[in-house]
Amino acid sequence: MGKKQIFNATLTAIRALSERYSMLTLSLPATVGDMEVLPGQFVEIRVADSPSTYLRRPISICDYDAASRVMTLLIRRAGEGTEHLCDLPEGSALDIVGPLGNGFSIPAPGSTALLAGGGIGVAPLMLLGKKMKEQGVTPCFLLGARTASEILLAKEFAAIGEVAISTDDGTAGEKGYAADNSVLGRHYDLVCTCGPKPMMAGIAHKARANGSPCEVSLENLMACGLGACLCCVEPTLKGNLRACVEGPVFDTGMLLWEI
To answer: Which of 6, 158, 227, 252 has its CA 20 to 30 A from that of 173?
Structure first.
């Protein structure tokens, strides 16, 4: 796990991907040094000048370039806190704690991996896919959404590996749920997924049927992000574990899910 730090980042660019999603590009200060970021980790951001937003907001790290100290975050407008973050002007300073939590595994060179995300759950798959490709793993991405306009970053993922798409209404890719996409009929050396729990459970079920190990990134409610408040606890074979510390990534074999 990378050592967590507290730092002020500068918002250098903001890109609206749709009405509900925005991509924030941040420049991190030199004080972070050679900070290691693992795919699947997240940051906690203080929402300044928002009177009703008392707690930091946990946001998955979408991408990070250590050489330039540039981090990108994919944010969904889900409430006052995230609305405020998406509407910040360029040049704003963001008070950040991170990187937090544990990340996804990367299999051995020559392996294949399926990286499946639904909605905002595609965020951690960008850095994960890049790291896998760098280390000789062949990633295939599965992107799911309700409709074509909500498929996120498809071109960016296509620059890394194969992309499969599922939409509930059939306006892009295969019609139906992501867990029913035909790419799940293959065997992979590792399946990684993040998104709504029903989607992740369905993908985990297909992975098990194909003999593929599966890791999921949980989206449990995280208030502190440091393991103190215990509101993100997940029941596992090892007892109740904190998604923000022992997770958010778990091997599905550890979870008490019915898959």
So the answer is: 252
Spatial contact of 129 and 160, defined as CB atoms under 8 Å apart: yes
Strand partners, 251: 215
Contacts of 109 (CB under 8 A, 6+ apart): 135, 136, 137
DSSP alpha helices (H): ranges in 5-124?
A: 80-86
Neighbouring residues of 25: CB distance < 8 A, sequence distance ≥ 6? 11, 12, 13, 14, 15, 70, 71, 72
Q: Tell me which amino acid residue 230 is.
A: L
The structural domains of the chain, ordered by start, are 5-100 (2.40.30.10)
Q: How would you classify the pairing of strands 138-145 and 233-236?
A: unpaired
Cα atoms in the Cβ-side hemisphere of radius 13 Å centred on 80:
9
pLDDT (tens digit per residue) in 26-59:
999 999 988 999 999 999 998 877 656 667 889 9
Q: Which residue has the tokens 């900070």?
A: 35
